[in-house]
Amino acid sequence: MKIALLTRYGDLAASTRQRFQQYRPYLEASDFELVSRPLLDDTYLERLYTGGRRSAAQLARRYVDRVLWLLSRPDVDLIWLNYDLFPFMPGLFESLARIPGKPIVFDYDDAIFHNYDLHSKRLVRRVLGKKLHSTIGGAELVLAGNAYLADYARPLNARVEIVPTVVDAWVYRPAPPANNAETAPRVGWIGTPSTWSEYLVKLMPALMPTLEQADAHLAVMGAGRDAVAQPRLDIEPWSEAAEVPFLQSLDIGIMPLTDTPWARGKCGYKLIQYMACGLPVVASPVGVNSEIVEHGVNGFLARTDDEWREALTTLLHDPALRHRMGAAGRRKVEEQYSLQVWGPRVASLLLDAASRCRHT
């Protein structure tokens, strides 16, 4: 059985790797053949992250390529769609994915509908505010990364499954004890240039004095060019190969968020990464963060600056507590947020979706 992966970006994008490509071994073991058809390649995403110039002509060509591919009646059995087919195009274009006999599985791990229904321009809200309704409603199955996203889809489709964004627990592991030398504690964050500027920068006035008092450092990965190293702030570029070693070098993982509709749609992936590597976490109680973090068990939830200071101070001065919370977080990932648990489940969900369509 052949599945077309219609992702927005290539493998450089976290959503493509986490929601699609990491399931490849489980799907291939179930006799699925996967065909990747990203809308935009890694070069486009690199320019997006670095603030480089993006070509409108290149973007138009990619849209046309996707239209032509869909019109060719491709030889696939199922379409696994990441987000919308054509961002910021009218919903009519989304109907191109409705090919007789080729069911659609719609997969999303961000509140992309807020790109439209909460857009600053009234015209966009009016024309595109409900553009995802037909795609979600016409899908054989919807895979939503958390309850907030699932709640949006359920009035439109009866077949909605919550599939968290998970990690391979055999890859994301705690550091060997020999690597945990007695050095200054490292509080860590991993993300993208946009989440750096949107969330972490706002916490810095409370965060940095707290670290200084505890003789600790802040280490960040993936913040982009706007992040500048300074005393007690270590900046590292993101790469897939460096991700796990970076996480294993940390003592505490953090995930600040502001309580907005967009943030409520996030799937807490960095928390899952931290916990898989045996780290205690501190996070804002926004959206799924409040499900992943059990306050006082595998980390702390912190809403105000004072709560952030208190949580970090407690962890920075208590290595034994860090170890206990880190171990609890690791267990939770193994049981609820690991590829080993979700790989067979996702393969089964896709097989069922394809089988239902064949028998109707």
UniProtKB/TrEMBL annotation:
Q: Is Transferase one of the keywords?
A: yes
For this UniProt record, the keywords arranged alphabetically read as follows: Transferase
**What Gene3D superfamilies does its record include?**
Glycogen Phosphorylase B (3.40.50.2000)
- Quote one Gene Ontology molecular function term: glycosyltransferase activity
Q: Which Pfam families does the record match to this protein?
A: Glyco_trans_1_4 (PF13692)
Q: What is this protein called?
A: Glycosyltransferase involved in cell wall bisynthesis
Organism whose genome encodes this protein: Devosia enhydra
